[in-house]
Every structure is written in C-alpha cells, then in structure tokens.
Amino acid sequence: MSGQTPFPTRIKPPEQRPELPEFWDKRFGAGVMPWDAGGVPAEFAAFVASRTQPLATLIPGCGSAWEAACLAAAGWPVTALDFSPTAIAQARQILGPAAVDLRCADFFSFAPARPYDLIYERAFLCALPRKLWADWGHRVAELLPPGGLLAGYFYICDQPKGPPFGILAEQLNELLAAQFALVEDIPASDPLPVFDRGERWQVWRRR
Q: What is the spatial distance between Cα 35 and Cα 84, in angstroms, rounded to a whole number?
C-alpha cells in the first residue's frame, strides 16, 4: 500500500557470508573443515611429478596449504593465499620451515610482482558465491600469461546452495573458454565426501 515503509533488507552477519574472511575464520577456528583433505590428492601429485621443470605457482584460498608444502618440497616456487587469518595460522603450523610465500591476502586485490606459470584450484571457486564467479574468471586470466596453466579440482554439479556451490560444465566453460583451452578433464579418483563424487580434475591452458 502507498505510504508504507518497506521492510528493511536483512543483512547477514559477517560469519554467515562466505565472501568475507569472518565466515572462514569461524569454521577454521572450530575445526569444521570438510574441504580439508589432510594431504595431497592423487591427480595433483601426478601432475607435479610429470613436469620436467618447476612452475611458479599461486594457490588461492590455500586453507591448510598441504599442496603448497608438496610443491615446496619439490623445489617449486609457490605463493599460498588465504584471506582468513585463522586459516593462515593453521597453514603456518603445517608448513613449518617450508619455503612457501604465505600471504594473508584477498585473491581479487592481490598484486604479484611477476606472473605465475600455474594457478592451482581446489575448494576455492566452489567457496565463492555465484556473484563473484565472473570476477574469478577475469582474475585467473589476468594472473596467467599465454601458455600458463589453471589446474585443479572443480565441483561440477547443479547444487545451488553452498558453500560448496556447484557449477555446471557449461557455466565453467562460459567463465573460461574465451581465454583458456581445456586440455585435461577426468573424474577425481578420491573426491572429498563433501563434494559427493562431483569433483573433476581439469587442466586449462591460457590462450
């Protein structure tokens, strides 16, 4: 009815908004981390072993940073990012003296000194609300030179609620195909239970 003030839009508190670090601080602090494999997944380990030269690697949303420790042990230069201070504190404990450039920073505003050869993806894109997907696609393209690789695990399904937020294959293709070519796509051999067999290992090459 005219003249009435509409109900105000309810704004969720920070710990209920996955686009904010407080959401992840709460979960890491409580030890609620179903996305944490506690080690290095098989396809990623095989990918690293197959390379004849180290690749300068960026891991956004690194969480506990198990893969960063693996890369450092193999002599790869690696930068691991997370915008959750609690996640970074946990990663420091796991990494110990490993030669990893560990940063508490936002992937979307992080400004590296030089391009990377590889961006590794696991449980980062699916942690982002859909409103940030296009920004993610632009950002990975910006951070990789032609020939650079985007490799990792993608949660391919139609699950609308999250995190984890599922993405359809055609949606991922829409985000990446203009700047990347898909060169490998296989089911994950040991997907995390939280992803309910929806994880696929993919490698995309920057055009």
A: 15
Tokens 């959401």 identify what position? 23
What are φ and ψ of residue 12, in 5° steps?
A: -65, 145
For residue range 129-173, list pLDDT tens digits in order: 999 999 999 999 999 999 999 999 999 999 888 899 999 999 999
Helix 21-30, helix 85-95: angle, nearest 10: 50
> Hey, what's the torsion of the CAs at 27, 31, 32, 38, to 10 degrees?
120
Contact in structure between 207 and 146 (CB atoms under 8 Å): yes
Task: Work out the average pLDDT over 10-31.
Answer: 89
Q: What percent of the chain has pLDDT over 70?
A: 96
Which of 126, 134, 187, 199 shows the shortest CA–CA distance to 160?
126
